[in-house]
Amino acid sequence: MTDDTAQHGDSPQPGGRSRPHVKLWLGRVACVAASFLLCAVAIEGVFRLVGVEPGMHDRGDQVTGHFWVCDPHFGFRNRPATCFRHEQVKGSPSVTTIQSGYRNGVNGDPAVVPPEVLFIGDSTTFCAETADDQTGPSEVAKLLKPGPVGVLNAGVRAYNTLQCKRMLEECLAQFSTIEVAVYVYCWNDISENLVDHVHYPAKSPTVRFDETTGQLVEVEVAEPTVPWGQDFKTIWHELRQKKLAERDRRKRWDQLLRNRMRERSVLFHFVHTRLGFLKDRLTGAIPRLDTEPTERKANPFVADPTAGRRELVCLLRQMQRLCDDKDVAFLVTSFTTGRELDWEIRDLCGTAGVRFVSARSDFTESPETYWAPLRNGGYDTHYGPKGTRTFARALAPAVQAELDWKERCRDE
Predict the structure, then answer these.
(1) Domains of the chain, first to last
(2) pLDDT one-digit tens code per residue, 157-199
(3) Which of 77, 223, 309, 352 could form a disulfide with 316 if both were Cys (CB 3.0 to 4.6 A apart)?
(4) Dist. CA 218–CA 21, nearest whole Å
(5) Do the beta carbons of residue 207 and residue 216 sit within 8 Å?
């Protein structure tokens, strides 16, 4: 090596690359990165054009806070004659209630069609993730013959079994045309019967079993968080903002970064959600349809996994007696997307002497196909349109059989 060459520094360095080679390599990396960036921008644009939104938006007015009104008998009930456009759900369905506060639906207004079938339950009956004509009760109404058959959707989000019993009692007293009453049980009802603040700021009446008398005691809401008759919209929004702020304070920097990126990028949120589903399937968080759990899901409010069974049996018996007194057929079914098993409520219905109709065998596909699709690419685990249609196909034959039996009895 000559001195002139060493001064210009163009010769290869020991153990390294020449500068032109480094520049060429960096240029290729930059081209690849730019290509990926352009593709990501293009995909982001396509997602936004078709209506997909970034995740984790807080729109202020939440569906639960919008519909609940504080009530001394029920704890809370539906706001009458109101409409909520559920912007987070794909298709932005309009969710409305009629003047009496019941969910609107197909043949669902008693002022137009006298109700022959009554549905009581919680959010899985109210179906705020679908349009009025796509709720579970609406889909059942489409299948009943000869039409039109009045089907009243008296479901209220977050109701426990005691509240459903009281709603059953109110509806039977108000509508003498009801022939069949259906209670749609959800797995969390059994523990919500024991705790009044599961859905705070709303409070629920609860039950406890008196060992001395052997009777079921109903415990009323003593101190509501808002005055009777007032809605929860303002307090719900304030509590949600505090909860989100507290959650962010507890998260690590990488979690906060992911959340901020999900708030701003449709593509990042979509990929993050799909990887989450894949992880849940690989780890068993979303169980396969052929798996059988040994006990019900854990509930943070009730430590004993067996608690509430005796109370639920008593409530089911009371509901059966209410229907017997009015000569109304009483059926119990369970919310399911195939993964939720119904062996517990089936056995408890057997103990209570109540007829149970299982819908689980009709849900043969992956659970998310029955969930409500969200505009941000994720899912709400309540029923979407396919879920309510499948539920109705499973349940309608049992309801139709009861209606036909009542018709034959009248003819005789």
Answers:
(1) 63-235+288-364+382-411 (3.40.50.1110)
(2) 999 999 999 999 999 999 999 999 999 999 999 989 999 888 8
(3) 352
(4) 81
(5) yes
